[in-house]
Amino acid sequence: MKIVSDSIEVKSRLRRYKPSLSSKIIQPDESYNYKKLEDLSKELINCSDTNDKTQLLLYIADEIVKQDGVKAYAVCQHGCAHCCKIHVSVTALEAYLIGQEIGKNPVQRKVQSKNDYCQFLDKNNASCTIYKVRPLHCRSFHSLDHYEYCTDLKIEHLIFKTAYSVRLLEIEKTLQSGSRCLVADIREWF
Predict the structure, then answer these.
(1) Which of 17, 37, 49, 167 is within CB 3.0–4.6 Å of 63 for a Cys-Cys bond?
(2) Residues near 35 by Cβ (< 8 Å), separated by ≥ 6?
(3) What pLDDT, on the 0 to 100 scale, is given for residue 44?
């Protein structure tokens, strides 16, 4: 689902796409300002509320993705929701944070199909209704080649995800540990 036209920036990234980027290390953003990451880390250390800590970990993940330079290659944009059909592992901590945001307690249950659009996708404008508290895997998933490959979940293409960053994996481990390894697809929580 894509309801927007490509921005000039995305068109430029699509023109610059080179399959040779696969299995190459993306160069970090040299202009990245570390102050934001330092401030979030300090805030996390001094935080006592579990939901606030979870939110801070997710904000730190956002900063790691920025610092790693992923956004310079990503063709993802507001109004494109092709990836909102993929399986999204959500820890209990993330589920409780989302639950607090929407005023509903998460309860694990089985669902028929995990390949439907996420229940938090506003299909009218292809945007996430829980963007501020979206899970780690949503924050760190970026398409680095043409978004048309995203339309078919069986097509492998050039993406960046949590597993491709040691620091994001550490955040994932922290969330899993704090959740006593209780993890389920986002569709199974709500």
Answers:
(1) 37
(2) none
(3) 97
Task: Give the pTM.
Answer: 0.86
Q: Which two tokens stand for residue 96?
A: 């409780």
Query: Which string of b and e fits 137-175 if b means at least 16 CB within 10 Å?
Result: bbbbbbbbbebeebeeeeeeebbbebeebeebeebbebb
Query: Residue 134 is encoded by which pair of tokens?
Result: 């979206």
Q: Which residues contact 165 (CB under 8 A, 6 or more apart)?
A: 64, 65, 68, 140
114's CB contacts (< 8 A; 6+ apart) are 87, 185, 187, 188
| Tokens found for residue 59 | 């904000």
Pairwise CA distance, residues 91 & 176, whole Å? 6
pLDDT, tens digit (0-9, with 9 covering 90-100), for 89-144: 999 999 999 999 999 999 999 887 777 899 999 999 999 999 999 999 999 999 88
∠179-184-189 over CA atoms, to 5°? 95
- What number of CA atoms fall less than 13 Å from residue 156's CA on the CB side? 2
DSSP character for 119?
A: T
